[in-house]
Amino acid sequence: MLALDIFLAALVFMGGLPLIAGCFQFGLAGLHCFRRRSRVEGDVHPRVAVVIPAWNEAAVIQRTLDQLARLEYPRERLRIYVVDDASDDDTPVLLGAKAHEYPGLVFPLRRERGGEGKSHTINHGLRRVRADGWYDAVLVIDADVIFTGGSLRRMARHLADPEVGAATAYIKEGSRPANYMNRFIAYEYITAQAAARRAQNVLGVHACLAGGAQLIRRESLEAVGGEIDTSTLAEDTVTTFRIQLAGKRVVFEPHAIVWAEEPRGVDGLWKQRLRWARGNIQVTRLFRRVWFHPRRPGGLGRLSFALIWFSVLLMPVFLLSASTGLIALFFDNRVFAEHAFRGLWAINVVAYLFITLSSFSIDPRTARLCWREGIAFPGIVSLMIMLYTVLPADFVADGNVLLRALGIHPSAALGDALTLFAYAWLTVSMLAAAAIRQMDRRRWLAWLSGPLVYVVGYGPLQCAVTATAYIKELRGAEMRWDKTEKVGAIGEVA
Amino acid sequence: MSDAPTIPGVPTEPDLAAGVPTEPDLAAGILTEPDLAAGIPTEPDLAAERAHEERSERWLFIRQVAIVLVLVALLLIHALLG
């Protein structure tokens, strides 16, 4: 029986792996000032061809182009190719007007037969850029992103180092006024971009160039075939992997700020993240010969990189494992189950405090906007479980006294039910998040989805999306490019 | 001074003496007068900007260390209180 208990406890503590990986990343992010710098970082202004895929972007494209025209970058070293993917709104007209306003800067291109997806649209632009032959580097961006004045200049200086094949920027959520979902995403981007990408700079290997800001050196683009991948839903990740496997480095420039407009509701977020999660599963399969092979170029086969990659990709599996282990232990050895439960959630508490405080420290300006969402990120239910875990046993017993004083007499059956609920929560939270998404799609229930995200947590929502992505991939579901709707909500930016 | 004929767009000797960037300069991204007029930062601006960025990264490290120390202290207090 002891062997079984140890096995079940191991299942439980697998649930702590993503947290340990998270702490590892935030620890590395703090070491960013000691990172391996580019061998040369200079004031260089390579000729940059910007490629913007645009499908029905009338609400956002003008501002994006105006902002690019105002970049602190020599005008004669910048060309902007906007690829209109057979838009049926005012996009072609607006692009014509902008080409007239910025002659020699804005070059509208048009695909008469569109609908093949973003990667095909980008490739249309890349073919034209390569045919012109004018460029030293290509900058692939989204139609809605707003580059701050010095952002491209800060990214470009890394290309002074011939070892650097590509650079990316810090994408921030810029919708104003920001609703609850925008604030959750703003906080998430501190963790997933400002922190995680700093950590990847320190490790010297990157998982993904941010899709909205990919500056790629000409030689690197040619080395990966001159076009981007169209076989997966994560073309930016595939490009990142291939550049590194071709022997060049990828770097993140945390001081190059780019603002983006992100979804404003659960359903929009779900569609966007489902595409990303399915893309990551496809990438994992595509590069199956790279994982755990430390000698592969670019560091992609290192254990440290695998820890970061798989802790996110396999998170639903880890959470399911923890719940299964706890429930099985509950029926086998209750005392041991309670110890394992407290141990797992103690890891949760420490990781939560470290990651939350570190996130606030990494980007205090954004944290002032979204600190409530940062605190509520794991969900109020998980926060209550954490509180229960750290409170002394006497205090919990006193709590029972309090309940009795209120006329509530917790029976043994109620106690068992609550215990099982807490043990199963890591898995139940994913199901609850999936239910919130269904509610968000029904007009008469949608108002509830916001408050419920705070209760269930934004983290579990992401895990539920990843779990759904596995199901879709196993079923071989159609790869759909569900474009995130943009309305031009980005506020005034510095 | 050279007697060579002037080719449009190619700096002449007097141009070069006056500091007009040559093609290799331009290829390396040297700023021109219109660039400077458009507000593109000069070397001293960039040096100050880089110094600021480096300082902010060092402060990030210091804050991370402080967070770790606070968490360790909290863990010790929790352990002492049983």
Describe the structure in brief.
Helices cover 57% and strands 11% of the residues of chain A.
Could you report the average pLDDT of chain A, rounded to the nearest whole number? 92
Report the count of strand segments of chain B. 0
Provide the β-strand percentage band of chain A.
5-15%
Shape of chain A from CA axes?
A: globular
The major β-sheet of chain A equals: 8 strands, mixed
- The low-pLDDT segments of chain A are none
Helix fraction of chain A? Answer: 55-70%
- Judged by helices, strands and strand pairing, the structural class of chain B is mainly alpha
End-to-end separation of chain A: 63 Å
Largest chain interface and its two residue counts?
Answer: A-B, 30 and 32 residues
Helix segment count of chain A? Answer: 19
Q: What is the string of SSEs of chain B from the N terminus onward?
A: HHHH
Task: Give the SSE layout.
The complex is a heterodimer of chains A (494) and B (82).
Chain A: H1 2-14, H2 17-30, E1 48-54, H3 61-69, E2 78-85, H4 91-101, E3 106-111, H5 118-132, E4 137-141, E5 146-147, H6 151-156, E6 164-173, H7 180-203, E7 213-217, H8 218-223, H9 235-245, E8 249-260, H10 266-286, H11 303-313, H12 315-332, H13 334-362, H14 364-375, H15 380-390, H16 393-405, H17 412-440, H18 446-456, H19 458-475
Parallel strand pairs in A: 1-2, 1-4, 2-3, 6-8
Antiparallel strand pairs in A: 4-7, 5-8, 6-7
Helix pairs in contact in A: 1-12, 1-13, 2-7, 2-11, 2-13, 3-4, 7-13, 7-14, 10-19, 12-13, 12-17, 13-14, 13-15, 17-18, 17-19
Chain B: H1 13-17, H2 23-27, H3 33-37, H4 43-81
